[in-house]
């Protein structure tokens, strides 16, 4: 399939980054070299080339150092795990093998003080992350993260099962499951930990905040589909990607599928901005929730600021993609109503 050229992204949120990102990156590299969940110098370069410190420093520009450091470690770990065990390798095409590996991995995170079984560096590194979170986060935050981590692994297993069966999910199914498979739940669950602020359960579990969290995950996941299309085309695993879902099930040619992908994400982006402003303006909203909502916006913007430069998407050994025309002045589809997708139509209800 021909690689498609990206269009500008609609995201009227100012860029931001944590001022100590360079020191966080330096310490993270020392941590990576301690656990060595990579194969040789090429593997190490690929892990470092994810620019994970920059990635999460953009998500949480006002984070506390300890929480941000632990979160950045998980992002480096997560990208490496995704590349070697989700997108390629022996586990990536066999859901039975993947689940047999993922179950003990999740258990290691939830019980990080127990000796890990075997000598898997991914398990040892994840246990260290679990211990770091327990040291700097509240029990509620830790539980939210471990639950979110399980949701991610389940989403990956669903994706691998589709691949093994030669099944292209429908737009409805893909919309429901892609945020989990893309790592959205654990990535956003770490925002509270990085910020050092626990959002009260009555707020975090409210329909409006659930919707906003899910919207941020979906926009970022769909954006990743757009950013990663060249990489995945080169590496021959573009089967489950928003563009291909639209091509297969909507019968759209590639250029039209790309345009439709932008229209879908812009409709969700517009609703996110509207609902986020409503919740933030409520005088009953806690300061912790307001900080969390700001970071959801930073996550959407920061995801693309990072993606336009990172070797993971631009190609190793290539120059970063230019960002001069990265941002659109308005949504490509300004219609305010809900998208006709069952899993997300409720986001446009009165929440």
From TrEMBL:
Pfam entry (one): Terpene_syn_C_2
Protein name, per record: Terpene synthase
Required cofactor names: Mg(2+)
Top-rank EC class of the record's enzyme: lyase
Coiled coil regions, renumbered to chain: none
Keyword annotations from UniProtKB, A to Z: Lyase, Magnesium, Metal-binding
Similarity field: Belongs to the terpene synthase family.
SUPFAM superfamilies (UniProt xref): Terpenoid synthases
EC code: 4.2.3.-
């Amino acid at each position: 399939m021909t690689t498609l050229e990206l269009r500008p992204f609609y995201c009227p949120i100012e860029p931001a980054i944590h001022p100590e990102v360079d020191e966080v990156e330096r310490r993270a590299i020392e941590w990576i070299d301690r656990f060595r969940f990579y194969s040789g110098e090429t593997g190490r370069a690929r892990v470092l080339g994810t620019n994970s410190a920059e990635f999460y420093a953009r998500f949480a520009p006002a984070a506390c150092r300890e929480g941000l450091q632990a979160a950045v470690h998980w992002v480096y770990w997560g990208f490496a795990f995704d590349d070697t065990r989700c997108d390629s390798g022996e586990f990536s095409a066999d859901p039975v093998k993947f689940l047999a590996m993922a179950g003990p991995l999740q258990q290691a995170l939830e019980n990080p003080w127990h000796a890990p079984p075997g000598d898997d560096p991914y398990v040892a590194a994840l246990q260290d992350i679990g211990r770091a979170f327990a040291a700097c986060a509240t029990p509620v935050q830790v539980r939210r993260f471990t639950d979110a981590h399980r949701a991610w692994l389940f989403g990956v297993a669903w994706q691998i099962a589709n691949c093994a069966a030669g099944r292209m999910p429908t737009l409805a199914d893909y919309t429901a499951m892609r945020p989990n498979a893309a790592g959205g739940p654990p990535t956003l669950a770490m925002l509270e930990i990085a910020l050092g602020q626990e959002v009260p359960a009555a707020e975090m579990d409210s329909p409006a905040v659930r919707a906003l969290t899910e919207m941020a995950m979906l926009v970022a996941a769909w954006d990743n589909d757009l950013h990663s299309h060249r990489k995945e085309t080169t590496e021959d695993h573009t089967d489950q990607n928003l563009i291909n879902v639209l091509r297969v099930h909507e019968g759209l040619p590639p250029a039209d599928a790309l345009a439709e992908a932008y229209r879908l994400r812009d409709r969700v982006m517009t609703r996110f901005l509207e609902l986020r402003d409503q919740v933030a303006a409520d005088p009953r909203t806690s300061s912790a929730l307001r900080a969390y909502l700001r970071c959801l916006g930073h996550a959407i913007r920061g995801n693309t600021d990072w993606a336009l430069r990172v070797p993971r998407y631009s190609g190793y050994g290539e120059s970063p993609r230019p960002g001069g025309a990265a941002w659109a002045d308005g949504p490509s589809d300004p219609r305010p109503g809900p998208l006709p997708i069952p899993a997300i139509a409720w986001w446009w209800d009165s929440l």
